[in-house]
Amino acid sequence: MIYDLLIENITKNRAVSIAEAEKFCSFFSAKTISKREFLLKQGEFCKFEAFVTEGCFRVFSLDKKGNENTLYFAAKDWWLMDIDSFMNHKPSDLNIQALEDSKILIISQEDKTTLYNELPIAEKFFRIMFQKSIVAWQRRVVRNNSLTAKERYYYFTTRYPEIVLKLTDRQMASYLGITHEFLSKIKKQDKIQ
Amino acid sequence: MIYDLLIENITKNRAVSIAEAEKFCSFFSAKTISKREFLLKQGEFCKFEAFVTEGCFRVFSLDKKGNENTLYFAAKDWWLMDIDSFMNHKPSDLNIQALEDSKILIISQEDKTTLYNELPIAEKFFRIMFQKSIVAWQRRVVRNNSLTAKERYYYFTTRYPEIVLKLTDRQMASYLGITHEFLSKIKKQDKIQ
DNA sequence: AAAAATTGTTGAACAAGTTCAACACGATTA
DNA sequence: TAATCGTGTTGAACTTGTTCAACAATTTTT
């Protein structure tokens, strides 16, 4: 069933009844996205939140110098959203693009409000999910400040080997915060030793 | 009243009744922390969350090379916690130290659970607070990757001028992700022009 | 008030990462 | 099939930021 993965995601480590899980899922509908297609473009209003059931996405922004900055990749079992645009009803700074043919479960802004109102456990679920997310972002900041590019490259490739397979070097470099030329040099060094 | 600032913080932009706000506050007790005192040390279990009503704190970790990495500063009206240690009941990676004589409102781990159970609006309040926090962390990652040290210095000093006054250069440098020597050189360059 | 410790400054040598340009390769597209 | 475009690689020159050491100025402790 298309909701299996989402049900597992929301019930994992939490006391959620079958009825609650089913109600939760009823707010989401399935959607297919082709490779290279954009789910969201900078400047648009983000009026959805989504859960990835198949494929992979890249979330990135463009800075003033025109460089791409990859915030994160979202493969199966990850959530996709622009919290800022969604929460504050403002144009998005982010682009969300499919790296391969993908499938998501999507909820609209209005339905998300209804979900919170009708299913109190949803507040707890997302509250905990956001807490975990903050921990991950804090660790990312510390890694970016305290590790060299080479160390960050090792961390990323050993931590997310399945995602690495789906990326070009340019996409990975924009996540690591280095140029793709320098990433190429890191990889070369690596092979020699 | 000592709860005034907390009440303003939780009611701002949200429909919270006076009764709810008062109940919320009843879980918190006032505490005084002296300059240089640690509210939490790396290795300890973080069994509290706190709201700063006076003074300023620094939250930092030590990496393998022995360098301090400042995650954030928390002045009046900010929340202080180690989400990871608190949520996952594990030893903390973080140090929380008062930069000056300070006052906080503090809630214990048990009371936080009770608060969530007895006051459903608390789930919504913290869910929204955490969402805002994620947006801030995402922006920090983008700034760290796309701005030079000098640009980050400008951003920080113009965005948080009151906090800057309370910091040594070393503390600011550890937040910006540079050495204090280099910060000193940035400041010198700055004066000349 | 003296001693000790921490802080900020500066310089010189160095390391990490960028920029730009050139080229080879593979994948789309016409 | 040819043409085009994006990708990965490499080198040389350059910029940004680090490291280490020395010193002066403050702050803290005794």
Task: Lay out the secondary structure.
Two copies of one chain form a homodimer.
Chain A lengths: L3 H8 L6 H9 L2 E5 L4 E3 L7 E7 L1 E7 L5 E8 L3 E2 L2 H6 L6 E4 L3 E7 H10 L1 H27 L2 H11 L1 H4 L4 H8 L3 H13 L1
Antiparallel strand pairs in A: 1-8, 2-7, 3-6, 3-8, 4-5, 4-7
Chain A binds a DNA duplex (30 and 30 nucleotides) through α9.
Strand order of the largest sheet of chain A: 1-8-3-6
The helix/strand class of chain A is alpha+beta
N- and C-termini, Cα separation of chain A: 47 Å
CATH topology-level fold name of the domain at 4-118 in chain A: Jelly Rolls
Order of secondary-structure elements of chain A: HHEEEEEEHEEHHHHHH
CATH superfamily of the domain at 4-118 in chain A: Jelly Rolls
Largest interface: A-B, 32 and 32 residues
Mean pLDDT of chain A: 95
Can you tell me the residue ranges of chain A where pLDDT is under 50 for at least 5 consecutive residues?
A: none
Strand percent estimate of chain A = 15-25%
Gross geometry of chain A: globular
The count of strands of chain A amounts to: 8
Helix run count of chain A: 9
What is the CATH architecture annotation of the domain at 4-118 in chain A? Sandwich
Largest pleated sheet of chain A: 4 strands, antiparallel
Percent of residues in helices of chain A: 40-55%
* CATH class term of the domain at 4-118 in chain A: Mainly Beta
Q: In oligomeric terms, what are we looking at? A: homodimer
